[in-house]
Amino acid sequence: MPTCDVCDDFFQYETNKVIRIQSMNYGTVKWIFHMIVFSYVSFALVSDKLYQRKEPLISSVHTKVKGVAEVREEILENGMKKEVQSIFDTADYTFPLQGNSFFVMTNFLKTEGQRRGLCPEYPAPRTRCSSDRNCQKGWKNPHSKGIQTGKCIVYKGNQKTCEVSAWCPTEATEAAPRPALLNSAENFTVLIKNNIDFPGHNYTTRNIFPDLNISCTFNKTQNPLCPIFRLGDIFQETGDNFSEVAIQGGIMGIEIYWDCNLDSWSHHCLPKYSFRRLDDRTTNDSSYISPRSPGYNFRYAKYYKENNVEKRTLIKVFGIRFDILVFGTGGKLDIIQLIVYIGSTLSYFGLATVFIDFLINTYSSQCCRTHVYPNCKCCECCAVNEYYYRKKCESVVEPKPRPLMDFTALSRLPLSLQDPPPISEQPEKIQLLRKAVTPRPDSIPSWCQCGNCLQSQLPESRRCLEELCCRRKPGACITTSEPFRKLVLSREALQFLLLCQEPLLELDADSTNSQLRHCAYRCYATWRFGSQDLADFAILPSCCRWRIRREFPKSDGQYSGFKSPY
Length: 566
Fold this sequence. Notes:
It contains 13 helices and 15 strands. The protein has 566 residues and is of the alpha+beta class.
């Protein structure tokens, strides 16, 4: 038999119980939340193409720089300065770099005629000396031009520096020429060839299209797809001055962004170019040895032999390095991705439940019942949330041993619950409330269909609450039916119900009619609406209400009418 129990437990299904609240306010709140969530989910799905499977690109870049510059520089010949004019072409001002970068020289410093030997170091705080004791043989550091020999010799005039074994004469520490020698490099152009591939989607393309005009130049508004860029225009896009940057050099980023939609019905795959200054433009420290010095520079040498002696020309190059940054994604419709997105967004619709539960818990709290509702008349409509809370939350008390019951008070129960037997062939006696409300043909309201309804005693502003008949079309009144007499008007049944609820209830003469009358109201509501919970909110038809009042009248004939239970 244990095997059967295991099988029964295995073949079971559990689900959550749902409480459905018929409320115009909460229904409106729910649909507002659902519409907001649905609008957001739909907008994100379409605008961000979340139904696609995204894949990063694989890229290769090739560049070609074009342009010719005329350079005027001063050289020292036979102790006299002389201006020399020279022409620089692509081979002179570009240098091969690794990766997606290219370099354009804009300024330079030359130290010509260097050869290996012994010579004084260029004057600096660490190289000045007054005697050999200030120089240490074999000493060197990263900022020196050679290795000290231990001697202190004359550099120029009265200046003495330590002798070094190096390329002589040593390089002088000088500032970059102003203006830049290749200031006209802003008119140079660069052609960027960019090939991309999405291997997962089996798609390849490039930024040079068949209908490209080879004489075009990139312009953000007129020619946004042209891959030929003027260097000066690149700096204008970032708000920088090319002539200022050309003096010390810098680093500029050229960003190529591909946002490709590879769906056949809305294919779109075009590059978008943007520019960004990558080096630190805020520092003003131009110290020769400072790591914070601005710009971009490096050194290279041109070697040659003169009279069978190896010599070189050392050139300190200032220029602009252009880094080409290619990034982007390609997307294509994927059913699995679409299902995953829809499944992940279904939880957003639960926000309406969380918010409504928060309102119900707040409005049904003890604080609202004791402080808010008694003092705020406009908040009385929110008191119904206490009923919603009772239906939503069920309190379970921990089982405890039942105490012994005291039956000494059973003698207080009435001995008989029987109504006095009616006298045969004698009509039922109806106690009139007031003469003004005695049913008369001319006092029947226009909305009454059964002929037994009376006008409400409520104020004019609330009278419409009780203008309700038991019928929608003319016909017999429900108060004349046998079930109404036995279920609603039976004194014996009503007394029994009251004693079931409170066994020790004292049914004294003064309060009996009031208790029986309200019990009859609830019996009718439970009978007609099928739920005892709705009895607190149900409005009884006028004919039924007055029939119950005649059966169990109030001594003064004044009734309070319908009141909300919360």
